[in-house]
Amino acid sequence: MSDVTDTSTPERPAQLPAQSPPVDPAETAAAEQRAGGRLSWWRGEGGEGARRNLWLIGVLVALIVIGVITRPDLYGDSSWVWSNILVILKLASVVGVVTVGMTFVIIGGGIDLSVGAIVALAGVWATTVATQSYGAGGMIFCALAVGLCVGLVNGVLISYGRLVPFIATLAMLVAARGLAAELSDKQTQVSDNATINGIASTNLFGIPLLVYILAAVVLAGWVLLNRTTFGRRTVAVGGNPEAARLAGIDVKRHTVLLYALSGLCCGIAAIMLTAQATSAQAAMANLYELDAIAAAIIGGTLLSGGRGTIIGSLLGVIIFSTITNLFAINGLTTEAQNMVKGGIIVAAVLVQQVQFRSLTQFLGRNRLTTN
């Protein structure tokens, strides 16, 4: 029997399909945690300020759209639009500075109804003949010192005199207006200082100096509230004064400092308003306290204290200035403007609350569905 040689080709092993590299469960969990953390931050208290500011920006866009619809002849001119933006910012500058101080007071659990009267008193005192003889530096120092001192008096009465902030600042409103009328003899005092008057007419790179002053005060307020111990203590005092006291915070002293800060902002605003009008009188800055409180509330500051943002308050001021400008270019009377403003304040707060509640519920359902 002869041997038979096997010449068949050996069978090749079957090739396995290509596989993806192994996935590290730890990396997957970390990625899910980061995504969940961002979602949790957005729908939690940390993202509430961002949601509120986004809503305020939406309101501004809606107001611009209304302006385009009602006055297309004006909004069709790009140069007029830019000029109008500067007018709105210039209109918001003085009230915006006052609102920064008011925001700190409200976050700290207080209220200041005397800010308009402090502006008037500081402006009148800075424009007396005796004060103007010291030049621009003397006028600025006088306005800041008057505002700071009146704010300190408010803080001492509230903290150590144990007066209710509403009553103490209401009494200061009447007293400061009366003192301003006495100093000016119920007359309008003209500012003869070219440097002070030039603050309102000076432009840097096409932008009014008043807008730069507002930006500087807002930036300083934002840093003070969000990046310093003073800001954290302000939130703590406004949220729970007793817990803040037990934590070692001198609540009374801090309250005095808050009202002093509000008075200082009023002193700055007094110089700005005096520069715009080139004069000062006891009736100036009328109802500024209501404008500042309304802007802070619209911006997300709680009247009960413990929460608020400087950026939100700034957006609130710009919204009201835009509304005033919108009414003016459409020829509405001041009385109609005030009535509509009151309605807008109430409607904005109600819509804001419903909007945030609905958004939080939607995000909560979306997260549950994803999980």
UniProtKB/TrEMBL annotation:
Organism annotation: Micromonospora musae
Membrane topology qualifier: Multi-pass membrane protein
Region: Disordered, residue numbers: 1-30
PANTHER family: ABC TRANSPORTER PERMEASE PROTEIN YPHD-RELATED-RELATED (PTHR32196), RIBOSE IMPORT PERMEASE PROTEIN RBSC (PTHR32196:SF72)
InterPro entries, alphabetized: ABC_transp_permease (IPR001851)
Skewed-composition ranges (Polar residues): 1-10
Protein known as: ABC transporter permease
Keyword Flavoprotein: no
Transmembrane segments: 52-69, 81-107, 113-131, 138-157, 163-183, 204-225, 256-275, 310-329
The entry's keywords: Cell membrane, Membrane, Transmembrane, Transmembrane helix
UniProt-listed CDD domains: TM_PBP1_transp_AraH_like
